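Input structure tokens:
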């Protein structure tokens, strides 16, 4: 197994554990307001807010790292015709 993949997996598990702990210990309702986008104040349990922010962060990170690979070197097909 790739060490980098193992490290990323362990890191994600730790982050998810922190998310679960925050949800367990922050059950009170909180007010969330974002005047430019939302006209009303949203009242939700803190755990749902943490989960929402985490999900937005994961999606943003996925979008920023996805694609953009371009064509990498390797033994792919070449544009030169083969002789013979």
């Amino acid at each position: 197994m790739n060490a980098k993949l193992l490290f990323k997996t362990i890191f994600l598990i730790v982050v998810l554990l922190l998310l679960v702990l925050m949800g367990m210990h922050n059950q009170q309702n909180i007010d969330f307001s974002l005047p430019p986008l939302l006209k009303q104040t949203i009242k939700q349990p803190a755990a749902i807010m943490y989960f929402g922010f985490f999900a937005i962060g994961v999606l943003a990170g996925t979008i920023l790292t996805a694609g953009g690979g371009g064509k990498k070197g390797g033994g792919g097909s070449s544009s030169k015709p083969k002789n013979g």
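The radius of gyration is 22 Å. The chain has a mean pLDDT of 79.
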